[in-house]
Write a structure and sequence with these properties.
Elements: H1 2-23, E1 25-31, H2 36-52, E2 56-62, H3 65-78, E3 84-87, H4 92-97, H5 105-115, H6 119-123, E4 126-127, E5 130-131, E6 134-140, E7 142-146, H7 147-153, H8 161-171, H9 187-198, H10 217-230, H11 242-250, E8 256-259, H12 263-269, E9 277-280, E10 294-303, H13 308-322, H14 327-331, H15 343-346, H16 349-352, H17 355-359, H18 361-371, E11 374-375, E12 379-380, E13 383-384, H19 388-393, H20 396-405, H21 411-426
Parallel strand pairs: 1-2, 1-3, 10-11
Antiparallel strand pairs: 3-10, 4-5, 6-10, 7-8, 7-9, 12-13
């Protein structure tokens, strides 16, 4: 009899929780942060949220940056899109125009009243009368170098392009490449060449009427200096993705690289001497100090459902991530890469108390400073031209670059051809 009662009780409990799970509002969370420790950190936060909200079940699904520009629209067409999708500003317009990304200005205003978003974070997702995504974190490309390598070569960190070229040449010796620059047709190369465009006064590739002005003297100068510098990069740089540049730096085979961060690989693979790790803003074209800046953009969360219950559940989860005590842990899934985009977040103890953040505090502070001078591809005088998505999705910046560094065309010819390719893509 006792065994029967125990069996029935167990069956009841199992049935109860099974029915509860079936009744839970499910939220699928797509993101592209596939590095295992990032996935683990996100899962920890998801588990905490799910435990505190038994009526909601959040599930993460890791995607690939190389595939997401095609996969996300395809999922919308197939009716299999996630409730939440992490993206970047030049990607959001595609999904907004499809009616998939939902306006979230009221929700963002609510979060803003609590945590105070930086205005640049909001500007990147506000156009056509709506805010299309919830800002999550910022990123900014910088120059990373070893202080000891510069000291041994008797040179100072560069500020101008001429100083950068001189430094790359001086540092290229004894099996070391002076600078690591990608040459592959991919997002990393797009963003690296764009950082040179920013610093030649060519950050805005659109005219105010939405027509392209990619083919201009500033763009040509940026492609020229990239081609000049590329001779000091590693021979396999034409095949680099994100990780190869960091590996080249960590192994001391590259004296300098342009990257959002190298802290994680440097700390784990290169001895982690924080006092020897230098970071500076991207050098600018000679005489162009006033336009000095970098590539800086905010990653955000688009809400991709019109279902009221799923939308509210998605907002609740995103609110959870933004809360003090959670937010710092969230963006420190990769300390020294993701930067806070709220005033509250920049003061969150869970951001600054991370052991890696403590060790590389000065470098992170420099990154934060660099990010304040960041520019965003596709923005002109505060306007967002949604056709930029077609250019970004096809990596047309790096395709144009390959015409110069691989096919051997002069920069002016490559840029002129790039203008034609881009014009055709957006028409």
């Amino acid at each position: 009899m006792k065994n029967i009662i125990q069996f029935l009780f167990t069956l009841f409990i199992y049935s109860f929780f099974s029915l509860s799970a079936l009744g839970a509002t499910s939220v699928t969370f797509w993101h592209m942060e596939g590095v295992p420790h990032r996935v683990d950190r996100i899962q920890t936060l998801i588990d905490e949220f799910n435990a505190a909200n038994p009526g909601i079940e959040v599930k993460q699904e890791v995607q690939n940056w190389g595939e997401i520009y095609a996969k996300a629209p395809a999922s919308v067409a197939a009716g299999t899109s996630p409730e939440i999708l992490v993206g970047i500003p030049d990607f959001t317009p595609i999904l907004a125009e499809m009616g998939a990304a939902q306006p979230v200005e009221d929700f963002v205003a609510e979060l803003d009243s609590k945590y105070s978003f930086y205005q640049k974070a909001l500007d990147q997702y506000t156009y056509n009368g709506h805010t299309w995504a919830v800002p999550l974190w910022n990123m900014a490309i910088s120059i990373w170098y070893r202080k000891s390598a510069f000291e041994n070569a008797g040179i100072s960190p560069p500020k101008t392009w001429s100083e950068l070229k001189a430094a790359a040449k001086a540092l290229t010796k004894d099996g070391v490449y002076g600078i690591g620059l990608p040459g592959n047709k991919q997002l990393y190369t797009d963003q690296t060449i764009y950082s040179f465009m920013v610093n030649s006064g060519a950050s805005e590739i659109y005219n105010s009427d939405g027509t392209l002005r990619f083919d201009n003297s500033g763009t040509v100068s940026a492609y020229e200096v990239y081609k000049d510098l590329y001779q000091y990069s590693a021979p396999d740089a034409a095949n680099w993705t994100w990780g190869e540049a960091e590996a080249c730096f960590a192994s001391k085979a590259c004296a300098m690289i342009l990257q959002f961060t190298v802290i994680s690989t440097y700390d784990s693979q290169a001895g982690g001497d924080a006092s020897d790790l230098g970071v500076i803003q991207i050098p600018y074209a000679d005489g162009m100090e006033s336009s000095a800046g970098t590539v800086s953009y905010v990653n955000s969360a688009m809400i991709m459902t019109k279902d009221k219950e799923k939308m509210e559940a998605s907002k609740k989860f995103l609110s959870f991530l933004m809360e003090p005590g959670n937010y710092g842990r969230f963006i420190n899934m990769e300390p020294g890469l993701f930067l806070p985009i709220t005033e509250a977040g920049s003061q969150d103890s869970t951001f600054w108390d991370d052991p890696v953040a403590v060790k590389y505090k000065s470098q992170i502070e420099t990154m934060l400073d660099n990010s304040t001078r960041g520019s965003l591809f596709g923005f002109t005088n505060g306007n967002t031209f949604t056709s930029i998505s077609s250019i970004s999705a096809q990596n047309l910046l790096s395709q144009t670059l390959q015409l110069a560094i691989i096919d051997g065309k002069d920069a002016a010819s490559a840029v002129s051809e790039g203008q034609s390719i881009m014009t055709e893509a957006i028409e």
